[in-house]
Amino acid sequence: MSSPSAVSPLARRIFLVNLCAQIGIVVTGGLVRLTGSGLGCDTWPRCNDTQWTPHGESSIYTYIEFGNRMLTYVVGAVAVAATVIAWKHRPVRKEIRYLAAFQLFAVVGQAILGGITVLTDLHPASVAAHLLLSMFMIGSAVALCERAGEGDGPVRPLVRREIRVFAYAGVAVLAALLVVGTVVTGSGPHAGDEEARRFDVNVDQMAWLHADLAFLLLGAALALALALRVTDAPVSAQRRVWWLLGVMLPQGLIGYTQYFNGLPEWQVSLHMFGACLVVVTTVRIVFGLRERGDAGEERDQDASDAPMDVPAPADEPLPATRY
Average pLDDT, stretch 38-56? Predict the structure, then answer.
C-alpha cells in the first residue's frame, strides 16, 4: 500500500516516462555507434564548421548523429516536467526534489560530455564515461520512481541485515560489470567511426572478465533468491529478485551469442538494452527489501501504544478512610 504522502499517479507516470526516456537515449546512442555515425556531425555544438543542422548534401550518418542530439532535448523536456512536478508536491518531499533535479542537471552534463566525446574524436575513455553516466542516471531514475511510492518515515527493514548488505554487494558487482563492459566496447570493433582510437587492451581477455563478473552477479542473484525464500521474506521482495534473474539469463545468452558470431550490430544493440534492464531490476531489489511510511506514523503508533489513565466509574463508592 502506498503512503499517504506518496506523489500523485500523474507524477509517478511522469517519473516512469523519465526512466523510459533515459533507457531510450542509451539505445539510440548505441545505434549511432553501431552504424559508424559517431562523427556524422564532426564538431560541437555545431554540426560542422559552418552549419548548426544538416543540409541536403549531408550523409545519412550526419542525420543519424544529429537525430540523436535532438533526442537529448526530448529527454531534457521530460526531466524538466519531472522536476517541476516534484517541486510542486505537497507536503514537501526533499529527496524526491533532489532526485528529480539530478535528472535535469545530469541531462545537461550528458550533453556537454557528448560534445567532449565528439571534440576528442570519440576517445574511448570519453565514450565510456558517457555510457556510465547514462547507467547511473537510469539507476537514479529508478530510485525516483521507487521513492515516489514511499513516505519519508524511518526505514523499516523487511529482511535481515545480512541480506540487505548482500544486496548492496550485488549493486557493487553490477557497477564493476558495467565498467568492464565499457572497456570491452572501447577495445572492440564498434567504435562509432573507423578512425576512432581504441583501448590498448586484449579484447578477448576483457570480454571473459566481463563474463566472469556477469556470472558472479547471476550467482549472487540466485543466492539472494534462496536467502529470501528460506527466511520467509515478503513475496514482493522475492519477486523482484526473480525479475533480475529473468533479465540476466537472456542477457547472458545474447552476450555469448554475439561474442561467438563476430558482434553483429543488432545483437549488440539488444545487449545494451538488456544492460539497462539489469540496472533497473537490480536497483529495484534494494528498495524491495525495506518499506517507509509517513514521517508521523511512528509517533502516532507510539502514542497509540502508550498506557492511558482510565478514571474509575462515577457510581463506585470511594474506599473508606480510617482515621
Answer: 86
